[in-house]
Amino acid sequence: MRQAAADAGGEGHDFRPVFGAVAPAVAAADLALCHLETPLGPPEGPFTGYPVFQSPPGLAAALRDAGYDGCSTASNHALDAGTAGVRRTLDALDGAGLHYAGTARTRAESARPAVLRAGGARVAHLSYTYGSNAAVPADAPWSLGLLDPRRVVADARAARRAGADVVVLSVHWGTEWRQEPDAAQRRLADRLTRSRSGGRKDIDLIIGTHNHVPQPYEKVNGTWVVYGLGDQVASFIPSMYRGNEGSAARFTFTPGRDGWRVTRARFLVHHAETGPPFRVVPATPETYPDVHARVRAAVLSRGAAADGLREASY
């Protein structure tokens, strides 16, 4: 937030320069999805960091300008500012023209999947979290999507019945600071990727967040699972934590007789340079060799290369 304030010249917050180096790769995608872990506050603040987050609302427009089309919003921090924070966050995303999934202002909104169009496909985006640091309000249990596999499958099937060609699932799960997926992640990935309706997959792609460090990509029961992307924007101290490095996933879907399927799987490596100035930048063997080597090793650590996963460049 301090960097965004500096980039705005003392008038609010400007997050666009933070994303400048990676924005072309984001914008090049037919459909680009991010994960927004922090609720957004009112324009005047207050803006706070860990352990109770509230970010400037201008972040929404910066995500749009970076090329993102929508965001998952279900996380353990989604209710840090209560249901008022959920409402402000979704209002800001609406104002920026971004789709969202994972939190809701009303019961009716929680029942409608985010459906986006990309390359001729209707893509349903679903988002859930393992839990919440703040209590989920008893009078608004629908405000946050909790990770119940029965609900996930039911929602995926409903999205498919409503016409979705591709169902993408964002899950906030796992153990923080652990590179290997934990047993619960692996069990849930297996259960969700086995789910079929009429012989067709209920879920076509799973993208995980929460761990802060990059985790493996793996094909489970024929479906790609990204256990954890790592963080894109974070201000951890690199010498103490690895939350400043991560991957971006790029999957190409192609239509066929049995529906749309992944025909190309790629990953990119990035690094949050603490600076000053703070910037998200590509990490290559030339620019950040240690970061690049760690992220690449993590992403490929469960044999994804044998299933065709390759590194792409920014």
Notes on the protein architecture:
By secondary structure, this protein is of the alpha/beta class. The protein has a single domain, classed as Purple Acid Phosphatase, chain A, domain 2. The protein is built from nine helices and 15 strands. It has helices at residues 2-7, 16-19, 23-27, 59-66, 82-96, 107-110, 149-161, 183-194, 289-299, and strands at 33-35, 70-72, 99-101, 114-118, 121-129, 166-172, 196-197, 200-201, 205-209, 217-220, 223-226, 245-256, 259-273, 279-282, 310-311. The protein has a six-stranded mixed β-sheet. Strands 12, 13, 14 and 15 form a four-stranded mixed β-sheet that branches. Strands 1-2-3 form a three-stranded parallel β-sheet, covered by helices on one side. A hairpin with a 2-residue loop joins β12 and β13 (259-273). The longest helix is centred in the N-terminal third of the chain and has 15 residues, at 82-96. The two termini are 25 Å apart. InterPro entries: Capsule_synth_CapA, CW_Biosynth-Accessory, Metallo-depent_PP-like. Pfam families: PGA_cap. This is CapA family protein. Belongs to the CapA family. Residues 1-236 form the Capsule synthesis protein CapA domain.
